[in-house]
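Let us work through a complete example step by step.
Step 1: write down the sequence.
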Amino acid sequence: LQTENGVLLPSLQYALPFLDLHGTPRLEFHQSVFDELREKLLERVSAIALEGKVEERYKKLEDLLEKSFSLVKMPSIQPVVMCVMKHLPKVPEKKLKLVMADKDLYKACAVEVKRQIWQDNQALFGDEVSPLLKQYILEKENILFSNDISFLQNFFSPSPKTRRQGEVVQKLTQMIGKNVKLYDMVLQFLRTLFLRTRNVHYCTLRAELLMSLHDLEISEICTVDPCHKFTWCLDACIREKFVDNKRARELQGFLDGVKKGQEQVLGDLSMILCDPFAINTLALSTIRHLQDLVGQDTLPRESPDLLLLLRMLSLGQGAWDMIDSQVFKEPKMEAELITRFLPLLMSFVVDDHTFTVDQKLPSEEKGPIPYPSTIPEAFTKFLQENRIACEIGLYYILHITKQRNKNAFLRLLPALVETFSDLAFSDIFLHLLTGNLTLLGEEFALEEFCTSLFDGFFLAACSRKENVHRHVLRLLLHLHHKVAPAKLESLQKALEPTKQSGEAVKELYNQLTEKLELRKPSPAEVTETPSMELPLPTVPTPASR
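Step 2: predict the structure and record it as C-alpha cells.
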C-alpha cells in the first residue's frame, strides 16, 4: 500500500528511514508534502487566470472546477476549489446553488463568488448589508451623543476622505466591487430606509459610497451613476466647508443640465444634497455670503451665488417629499424667504455692528445704548413655517454663539422654542450648539443666562424629547463647575430621570450626580468653616471705661 500510494521518488527510499530515526511520523511528512503541493496548485490556478487568451484560460479553470468540485467539502482540498471559483467571472449556476444551500460553503467562499450569488438573490444580499447599515447609523449617533464636547472637534470635523475610510463604507465598497447591479441594490436599500425612517445619515452613506468607489477609480459604476460628477464637486466643497464661485458655477451647470425625461435624477441629487455634511456646507456658505452682502450694501436678491445656495438647500430639504411622492421637480422657492427673511437676518448683523460702534463712542449724558432685546415677529414666524428659513436661522444662531456674542444669542434664543418640525431640538443642531456654548462658559455663573438657556429653552422640551434630555446632561457634565450652586441644584432636580427614561439618560444622570458629589465639601471642611466666622469677643475701648 505504501509503495503504491507513496511519493514515487527513488531518492526518497533512503531519506524516509532517516526521518524514522528522528521519530518524525510518516503522516507529518506526507502532510507537509500535501500542503506544499496545495500551495503550488493555488499559485498555478492564480497564474492560469492571468495567462493566454480569455476563452482558453476560463475553459481550463472550468475543467478544473468540474474535476475538483466533488471534493469541496474536504477541508484540505476546499481552498483549491474556492480559489478556482474565485477566478471564474461566471461560476456555473448549478455550482452556485450548491454553495448557497450549504451554510459552511457559503461562509468559506470568496467575496467574488458571493457577488455572483447576491446579484440574483436580493433577500440574501439584504441580510448581509442590513447589519452594516445599522452599525453605520449607530456610529453616527454615538458621535452626536459623545461626552467629549468641544467647539473645535465636532460631528462635521472629519474630512470626507477620512470618513470614507470607515469600516462600514469600506466593507460595502468591497462587497459591491465593480458590480453595477449590487450598487443599485444598495442604493435602493438606502432610499427605502430613508423613506421609512427619515434618517438623514442614509443620505450621507449614499454620497460616501459613491465617492469611495470614485477613490478606487471603479469607472464601471462611476460612469453609470448620473450623480457622480455633481457629488465629486460637492465633495470638494464639503472638504473646504465653503462653496466658492467656481464650484458654484459647476454645481449650477449640473442642476441646469437635467434634461427633460431624466427628471428622476433629481431624486438622487436631492438625497445627496440632504446629507447633513452638504447642508452644513451650504448653510455656512449662506451665512458667510450674507455677511459679505452687509459689507457691500447689497440685497440678497441681487446675489446669484446666494440664490444658488438657497436652490440647493431647498432641493436637499425637499428630498424626502420628492422621493415619497415620486414627483421629480425642484421645489418652488418662496419669494418672501429672499425678500423678507434674509434681509431680517442681515439687519441682526447690522444691529451687532451698530452696538459695537456705540460701545466705543465716548458716553454722553444720555447713558449707554442698550442692546436690542425684541425679536421681530416675522422672524419667529419664518422659523416656525419655513424649513429653509429655519435651517439658515439656526446656523446664524450657531454663528453668533461661536463668536461669543451673548447679547445676540439671548435675544434670538426664545425664537427656538417653536421651530419648523422641531429642528431646534434635532440632534445635529443640539450637538453643535452644546459645543459652541462651551465658549460662553463664564456666562453660566449668571442667573439670567442660565434661566434663559435652561428654563426658557432646554427644559421646555426635555419631558417630551429624550434626546434633548441627553444633550442637556452632556452639557452639564462638561460645564457643571461653572454654574451657580443654587441653579445647579434646581437643574439636578428638574433633570431627574422618570421611569420612562431610557438607559442612556439614566447613565448620564448618574455620571452627573457622581461628579457633583465629588465637588461637595467634606464634613471636616463644613465643621471648620463656621469656626473661622465666630464673632470676636468685644474688648472695651478706653473711651467706654
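Step 3: interpret the result. The chain has 30 helices and no strands.
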